Amino acid sequence: MKYDALIIGGGTAGLSCAIRCLEAGMKTALISEGQNALHFASGSLDLLGALDGEPVHRPFQVIEKMAETRPNHPYACVGVNRVRDAMNWMAGLLGAEGIEMDGEGESNHLRLGTLGVMRPTWLSQKTVKRLQPHTNLKSVALITIDGFRDFQPALAVAALRKQFGDKLKITTGSIDLDAFKTVKRNPCEFRSSDIAYILQQGDYLAEIAKKLRNQAQGADLVAIPSVLGVKEGIAMQQSLELQSGLKLTEVPTMPPSLPGIRLADALKARFQALGGVLLQGDRVISGEFEQGQLKSVMTRQQGDQRFRADHFVLASGSYFSKGLVGDRQQIREAIFGLDVIAPVARNEWHSEKFFDPMSHPFMDAGVETNQFLNPSLQGEVIDNLYCVGSVLSGYDPVKEGSGSGVAASTGFYAAEQILENWRKKEAV
To answer: Which reaction does it catalyse (predicted)?
Structure first.
């Protein structure tokens, strides 16, 4: 139960850090309590879409200035060069696992969200057509599947009309599937994963292609819900485009998100292929600290058994995954009680406007770290513990559209710190 590196949390940040350590030959374990949050994500890699309520078109230019403008932001700690290295590394890793990511060079592009909102992102899967703010599209068709609740074109139309006005012809439609006739359940009960499973049981692409072509009415772009499958869904969409003659873009649905699951599965597969030890379904509940270092941790499932490591990484996430907890008195880090930066008075936790373009203060709360991502406990720096991802303070991943970018870059950066110290120890 002794490792070179032990990672707490199995999201993008934790897996990024763990994989980077494994690539260097470190004995690495990862403890993950529940489902990866990527199952709820878009499947794109968001770097920085907005800051202080203003849209960001060229994110690296903004990140480069953060040491001066936003010194407490995780990107300011990591630095623009390492952020770039991390994103290139992540794109290469996913590509090696069959998930090809693409973007617009130094600029963000737009992707179509479930409710019709065009969201800026850095890299998208090839199944998502990249759009620009001044798109040349003249017509788009939003086509769903009869009975499917998690993609509602009628709701998306209003958002698209608000953004494009009369410049874009928007049509909607739906198709029925013969595949559903073999299933006794009502289609309104299906989630995206259920439909993907049904479609994998037979050859339905020719039927879908014909019905899409009839509904598309010659549109320049046809948006369909992401229901074709996880990894196999990429090839299925390419085949569907060839058979239909349409330009298709898949739209992530309400959870579960198949494009998000693709990324989660790819990262997990790489972790396991490199020999990582995965402790699934367990939660770290406490740690043993001594002279400014974390010596071991205990988990809920293993009783008195202690997990020891030379280096630890906390990638436990924010409120959604209970890495941060807010009660009536305070916002706190849930496992070790690490020092946090958070508004003290309860009435300062949020803005008066629910849809304030600026971040609600509680969203910026998180663990306080030094420039190496080491946290402190009651003022004492823990120099072999690193914090990564949304447990960190100083940014709002939702408002900024920076969740996966911060996760990947801080995970990568923490691994670089660990590797430097590990190599020094090995050389002695």
So the answer is: a quinone + sn-glycerol 3-phosphate = dihydroxyacetone phosphate + a quinol
3-state SS of the chain?
CEEEEEEECCCHHHHHHHHHHHHCCCCEEEEECCCCHHHHCCCCECCCCEECCEECCCHHHHHHCHHHHCCCCHHHHHCHHHHHHHHHHHHHHHHHCCCCEECECCECEEEECCCCCEEEECEEECCCCCECCCCCCCEEEEEEECCCCCCCHHHHHHHHHHHHHHHCEEEEEEECCHHHHHCCCCHHHCCHHHHHHHHCCCCCHHHHHHHHHHHHCCCCEEEEECCCCCCHHHHHHHHHHHHHCCCEEEECCCCCCHHHHHHHHHHHHHHHHCCCEEEECCCEEEEEEECCEEEEEEECCCCCCEEEEEEEEECCCCCCCCCEEECCCCEEECCCCCCEECCCCHHHCCCCCCCCCCCCHHHHCEECECCCCCEEECCEECCCEEECHHHECCCCHHHHCCHHHHHHHHHHHHHHHHHHHHHHHHHC
User: Quick one: pLDDT at residue 356?
Assistant: 66
- For the chain, residues with pLDDT lower than 50 are none
Question: What pTM was computed for the model?
Answer: 0.92
pLDDT in tens, 225-274: 999 988 888 999 999 999 999 999 999 988 889 999 999 999 999 999 99
- Could you please state the CATH topology (level 3) that the domain comprising 109-257 is classified under: Rossmann fold (3.40.50)
Q: For 348-376, what is each residue's pLDDT tens digit? A: 777 777 666 667 777 789 999 999 999 99
Please report the pLDDT score of residue 254 as a whole number.
Answer: 84
